[in-house]
């Protein structure tokens, strides 16, 4: 670290950026990096309405700076602030009920699963020009479930989306510059639900489960067709934002929803297309893998590139077994359980983080974080316990490193 560069903790010998690059390569940095996803926790902690937090960028900025001052510093700024519901819907591709609109002002945004796709939409996706298929498919589907696009044609939806995307880019670039001045790394340059998962969410679980038996090959082909333009959009926007990391949401690809055989044959080809294009472009894929992924890990190890990917887990996959299965192939991200942060004691949280650092962090390739996100009802003292554990046990070289545990 150059003398002009800023570390996160006193005594750091690497910047947060250097530390992140090292763990992605599965190397040991100076200490374990930490990421806090505080999106829904932050406004409740700060005592502001969810509506104002999600719609007023000034309120969001002030709230996030408050949690930084009260709980920070940390390494990775987990940036999720949709400037508009239309942008949020484009990313998530499900109906979102909004605080202050469909919901009371202090309620969290809620996802409502409706079956807005039909079985014929796989053919529609396959018929779209490959260069723009993913973006065009999303824009055509948005009027079916998003109030901001209701009644609009594709061209009008695209115009509304681009206006809101420009607003998002302007806000993010200003926001990112502040976080970088604090020494933090911005985590995400682009994020969106993966194509296979869009089909599952748009059809709903029951209909999609039937489709997996009726038209499995069509689902696989349509997912791969959309994946190529998904990857190109991700590269373009990630470069525009100046953040070479893309968060790929795989909410419906786990063993909680499909079998390992279905994953390998129908979902993994599209994942592989996206991952390899991002890696080719010098961008790190962050696979946000909710659900139980344990039985998918062996084929991911065989098919996806090594030392290029962050695998983010949410508590349903045993991260200690994941370390054994794929920890020498992908950087692991997680995995303090939400229940422990909400209901446990600081001592329990600190000791669990200690175990994660010692076992999952052994040899490098690990980012300490909550499982998916910090729950809204987390105890503030438990978040501080996470940070205390990094300071006490996270060093790979300093006195704070706990004794090695026998393998």
Per-chain topology:
Layout: H1 16-24, E1 35-36, H2 41-46, H3 50-55, H4 57-71, E2 76-77, H5 85-92, E3 95-97, E4 110-112, H6 121-126, H7 133-141, H8 154-181, E5 185-186, E6 190-193, H9 195-203, H10 205-214, H11 216-241, E7 245-249, H12 260-280, E8 284-289, H13 297-303, E9 310-313, H14 319-326, E10 331-336, H15 338-343, H16 346-360, E11 366-370, H17 380-393
Parallel strand pairs: 1-2, 2-5, 6-7, 7-8, 8-9, 9-10, 10-11
Antiparallel strand pairs: 3-4
What structural category do the secondary elements indicate?
Answer: alpha/beta
Largest sheet: 6 strands, parallel
Overall pLDDT: 94
How far apart, in Å, are the first and last alpha carbons?
33 Å
What is the chain-wise order of helices and strands?
Answer: HEHHHEHEEHHHEEHHHEHEHEHEHHEH
Percentage of residues in strands: 5-15%
Biggest sheet, spatial arrangement of strands: 6-7-8-9-10-11
Broad shape: globular
Radius of gyration: 21 Å
The proportion of residues forming helix, as a percent range, comes to: 40-55%
The total of helices stands at 17
**Count of β-strands:** 11
Question: What does the model show?
Answer:
- With 407 residues, this protein is α/β, with parallel strands linked by helices.
- Helices cover 50% and strands 10% of the residues.
- It has 17 helices and eleven strands.
- It has helices spanning 16-24, 41-46, 50-55, 57-71, 85-92, 121-126, 133-141, 154-181, 195-203, 205-214, 216-241, 260-280, 297-303, 319-326, 338-343, 346-360, 380-393; strands at residues 35-36, 76-77, 95-97, 110-112, 185-186, 190-193, 245-249, 284-289, 310-313, 331-336, 366-370.
- The chain has a six-stranded parallel beta sheet. The chain has a three-stranded parallel beta sheet with strand order 1-2-5.
- α9 (195-203) packs across α10.
- The longest helix has 28 residues, at 154-181.
- It is globular, with a radius of gyration of 21 Å.
């Amino acid at each position: 670290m150059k003398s002009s560069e800023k570390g996160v903790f006193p005594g750091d010998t690497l910047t947060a950026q250097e530390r992140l690059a090292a763990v992605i390569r599965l190397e040991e940095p100076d200490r374990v990096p930490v990421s806090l996803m505080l999106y829904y926790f932050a406004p409740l902690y700060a005592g502001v309405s969810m509506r104002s937090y999600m719609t007023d960028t000034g309120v969001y900025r002030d709230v996030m700076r408050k949690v930084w001052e009260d709980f920070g510093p940390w390494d990775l700024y987990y940036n999720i602030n949709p400037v508009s519901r239309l942008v949020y819907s484009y990313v998530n591709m499900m109906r979102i009920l909004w605080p202050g609109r469909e919901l009371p002002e202090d309620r969290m945004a809620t996802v409502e699963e409706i079956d807005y796709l039909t079985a014929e939409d796989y053919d529609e996706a396959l018929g779209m020009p490959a260069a723009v298929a993913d973006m065009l498919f999303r824009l055509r589907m948005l009027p079916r479930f998003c109030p901001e696009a209701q009644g609009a044609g594709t061209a009008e939806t695209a115009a509304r989306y681009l206006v809101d995307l420009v607003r998002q880019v302007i806000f993010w670039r200003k926001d990112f510059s502040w976080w970088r001045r604090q020494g933090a790394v911005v985590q995400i340059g682009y994020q969106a639900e993966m194509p296979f998962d869009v089909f599952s969410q748009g059809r709903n679980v029951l209909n999609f489960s039937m489709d997996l038996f009726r038209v499995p090959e069509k689902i696989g082909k349509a997912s791969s067709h959309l994946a190529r333009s998904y990857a190109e959009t991700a590269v373009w926007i990630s470069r525009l934002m100046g953040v070479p990391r893309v968060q790929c949401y795989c909410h419906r690809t786990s063993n909680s929803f499909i079998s390992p055989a279905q994953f390998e044959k129908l979902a993994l080809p599209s994942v592989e297309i996206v991952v390899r294009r991002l890696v080719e472009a010098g961008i790190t894929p962050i696979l946000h893998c909710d659900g139980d992924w344990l039985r998918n890990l062996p084929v991911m190890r065989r098919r996806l590139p090594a030392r290029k990917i962050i695998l983010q887990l949410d508590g349903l996959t045993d991260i200690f077994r994941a370390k054994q299965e794929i920890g020498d192939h992908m950087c692991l991200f997680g995995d303090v359980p939400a229940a422990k942060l909400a209901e446990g004691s600081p001592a329990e949280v600190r000791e669990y983080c200690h175990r994660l650092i010692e076992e999952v962090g052994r040899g490098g390739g690990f980012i300490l974080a909550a499982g998916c996100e910090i729950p809204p009802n987390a105890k503030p003292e438990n978040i501080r316990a996470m940070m205390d554990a990094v300071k006490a046990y996270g060093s790979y070289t300093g006195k704070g490193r706990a004794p090695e545990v026998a393998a």
